[in-house]
Amino acid sequence: MTPLVEFRDVAFAYARPAQRRARAFAFPGLSFAVERGEVFGVIGPNSAGKTSLLRLLTRVLLPQRGEIRLDGRRVSALRSWELAREVAVVPQEAPRPFPFTVEQLVLMGRYPHAPRRFFEDTEDAAAARAAMAATETLALAPLPLEQLSGGERQRALLARALAQEPRLLVLDEPTAHLDLRYQTETAALLRRLNSERGMTILLVSHDLNLAAELCDRLLLLRAGEIARVGAAVDVLEQGLLERVFGCRVTVDKSASGRPVVQLAYERG
Amino acid sequence: MIRAVAALALLALASPADALVLRDMLDREVALAGPPTRIVSLVPSVTEIAFALGGEARIVGVSDFCDWPPAARAKPRVGGMVNPSLETIVALRPDLVVGTDEGNREETFLQLRRLGIPVYVVHARRVAEMYDLITRVGELTGRRDAVASIVAGIRRRIEAVRAAVKALPAPRVLYVLWPDPLLVPGRDSHLTEMIELAGGRSITAAEPVSYVRFSIEAAVARAPEVIVLADHGSGASTAGRAAPEKWQTLTSVPAIRAGRLYSVDLSILHRYGPRVPEGLEILARMIHPEAFK
Amino acid sequence: MTDARRLATALAALGLVLAGVALAALFVGSAGLSPSAVARALAGRAEASSVEAIVTLGLRLPRVAAAVLAGAALAVAGVGFQALTRNPLAEPSVLGVSSGAAFGVVLAQILGFQAGIVAALGVTVFAFAGALLAAAIVYLIATAPGGLAVQTLLLAGVIVGIFFSAAITVTISVVDFNRLSGVIHWLLGNLAPIPAASLALFAALAAAGVWLVLRHARELNLLALGEEAASQLGVDAERLKRRVFVAAALLTGTVVAFTGPIGFVGLIVPHVLRGVVGQDNRLLVPTSALAGGAFLLAADTLARSVVAPAELSVGVITAFCGAPFFVWILRTRSRPV
After folding, report:
1. B105 at interface of C, judged by CB pairs closer than 8 A
2. What is the pLDDT of residues A127-142, one digit of tens each?
3. Smallest Cα–Cα separation from B153: which of B68, B53, B293, B56?
4. Run of H or E including A26
5. What number of CA atoms fall less than 13 Å from residue B149's CA on the CB side?
6. Choosing among C26, C28, C30, C169, which should be mutated to test the B contact, i.e. which has the most B CBs within 10 A?
7. For A152-181, how does the pLDDT look when each residue is reduced to its tens digit (9 = 90+)?
8. Closest CA to C161 of C249, C226, C243
9. Contact C182 B105 (CB under 8 A)
10. What is the ipTM of this complex?
11. CA neighbor of B206 nearest in space, from B225, B188, B224, B182
């Protein structure tokens, strides 16, 4: 079975170091695949290229060499709204200012399905309602996004992505600004989407333990190169982590059998 | 047969509107159906002259600034010089509107012409042009006969002034039209000619354009012997009122040392009309008091 | 109620208001015409050279049309520019285009109508040239290798505006004193009856600008998500920004060219309408067009009747409305704008 996402020897470098990071950054040649129906995590230190990888996938950035394929088709050959029908991105946080209501936000996710249409139709409304139901945000529909709590906002953004009816859901730091409670809620929601709908999920996170719990496979990035890719227990190995992150860690087992990474704080 | 038809067609096409073709002071053609009997004057000096000639009956509307003679204030007003009300003008059913290129806007003239109202533009910056202006107003108001005596009277008085100051040395004169920013008359201003006729020499006579924003330093450097501050009357704001105290501090200036700083309402001099000799006489008295004992 | 239905209702209501104001404006004026005379002229039953015909059809009607067009254009330019910069306080005049056009006109006024080139081209063309120049400069300043940076756009617009305003001041200071009042009068913004051919051109340009913003209204909504997120939804963000910028510049430049700089309409009207129809640009653009036309028409009618027969500049009225309105916005921002 063709993987849903394939990166084949993708090379990319920012034109000027000043553009994004202080240090120059480059993917020398990245190759990996995401299988259908799996939950795939991308982890690594800051400026390892996690977000850049997302941007390459969603064509915000264009690779200088190599190909990115979505279900066998080259991403570069797709129209932007064709790509948007397959891949939906849940950003880290809602833009500010954002003067629209939750319902209006979710309906925005319907754009790729009929870009020429001026107003959304009943089909769009139904898809939006379904997305809000799945994320338990129907009650919040008429409220302005800015009035919601962090967790509610995150669910609204997720609803918008679901309204796109994608085959691949991409999340950029899904729990970065959330309370503990919302972190577990979000994780449960994602797992449900994956198990009940077979939704392929790609998530970028610096929360190693969340990644370990949720993901079937992990990709550990370091300075634009793959340090390791595989099951959580293989990737989250103490020696490797210490080399990549440059700090002392210990790796235990959680109650569910997944690895748990703990920082070894210096004393004194 | 064809020629007869053609001749008839030509006759029909020769509109009665071209019965009278004048040339205004910008040398533009003004086509009228006949002598104008309903004139709207957007120019205060034209209004003054019309009244002086006895032709006020033909004036059916004036600008807000047409305030002389007092009888002119009774005429229907059409608004300011810069933005008169087109509607009010049209409602007066004029057959001619008189405007000036110094105070009215070309845009107004375009609009009026577009509405089928002929516009006659005047322009007077020299005394010689003023006589021309009086003659033309006389023609427009049907008071040709009155022109000669008015013109003669003005000429006589101006000549009298000229004769009185002819032999005397011309002092350097600074005329302050507006104190702050300092506005003085330049080469193209009629005030420069007035000062000359009054027996003075304007220190800003060589400046280009009609009114110049001048620097006080330069004025001081040219050491005027007489300073005339134009007082724009009680209607002016405090900014417009001459402030002699400010000038008293410039003790290097001959005019200040000799105490020859005059502030006077010379608005009659700022308008070209029958009262110009009056203003000239006042100006001459300030510049050459010794000639008018 | 679906969006389409809400839009239709709002447009119908505003259309009624606009028609009402337009009709009222035709009956107001300093010519002292009786209502029956005006009605006669409007029905075409007055003699072509009668006072009521000339005043109603030759003066008032074109002026009403000009006011509606200018108001609509400015309001839509405001909506577009605010959506583009994601800033509800962005005003079209901040684009710098107004000042550029004003500079072109001042230059034309100084050359004087006697100068052959100016008479031939007309002041309007000079205004357009100035507007184009300013817009081009702003665009060039704000375009980085990555594309059009909207925050730089605001700053660039302000800077270009200041530059041209200074240029205007310098030019005015050397202008012949007698022309000065005419130039200053123009700079205050005035609606005057525009001849039919020019009016048709004005209408065509305004329609083009409004249409350009309207057809991208849905995408402008998506722009609120941020450019990256919008492009991940399939929006061509660069093309959208370019087009809306051009539309806003076209609308603003057109209005300034024909009527002089009139401020605050592009700020007040979209703002008030947001409180009524919400943030959706698909509703905001068409309703702002109608409301903008009605607003400016009302302001202009006030301007020409309050001190009749003298006339105030319409820009003065909008500024008098605008300043306290601005204060009110700032003080009552309890709901998110």
Report:
1. yes
2. 999 999 999 999 999 9
3. B53
4. strand A26-34
5. 6
6. C30
7. 999 999 999 999 999 999 999 988 777 788
8. C249
9. yes
10. 0.90
11. B188
